[in-house]
Amino acid sequence: NNENNNNNNNNNNNEPTSTVLASVVLYIHVASVNNAPTLVSTFSPPALEDQWTVVGTALSLHDVDANDDLLTLDVWTTKGTVRVPTHLVGVRWVTRTPVRLVVQGPPDRVSAALSLVEYQGPRDHHGNFTVHVRVTDLAGDTAAVPLVVRVSNVNDAPEVLRPTHILQVNETQDLSLFQVYGLQIVDADDTFGSATTVVQNEVLTLHV
User: Fold this and answer.
1) Mean pLDDT lowest for which of 66-70, 159-163, 164-168?
2) Given 3-state DSSP classes, what are the helix, strand and coil percentages for the chain, each rounded to the nearest 5?
3) φ, ψ for residue 6, nearest 5 deg
4) pTM for this predicted structure
């Protein structure tokens, strides 16, 4: 009997074991969350007085929602003039005046439009001026940067504004060109200079 029991135990120990696996597939829906566009000023663009300068290249625009987003670009200034001198592709003009530009389009086209924006400071003025730039996406999130433009002085030649009528005086009469006959010297740079008069063959010439 003991021998039979041992044989039975051996047979039980030799029986193969099996593992049952269960698998489940879970579907997770990830809802989109809007990300605001980013607008960064990389440097202060230099400019020259009374000349157009590309300033949009000083800004970096990025939108991670680029596949399904529509951006509105708003550029304006309170001193000077802004413009885009070339034809824009893939955007729609909303506002286009000498002091404000507004366009709408996909992020890559808006970024391309921004890189073409030019600025000119107030006539005969130099110093630091600000171009305001704001970008708004479909969700209403915005990014804004005040871009400082450094306008350097360019020398302007002085002007002599003379009267249109003929001056008549007696031989011994003192002549006040500036007070009586309205002769003016204009220099947009407001710098110190000199003025001399030369009389030759009864013609008076003023050198400034």
Assistant:
1) 164-168
2) 10, 35, 50
3) -65, -40
4) 0.66
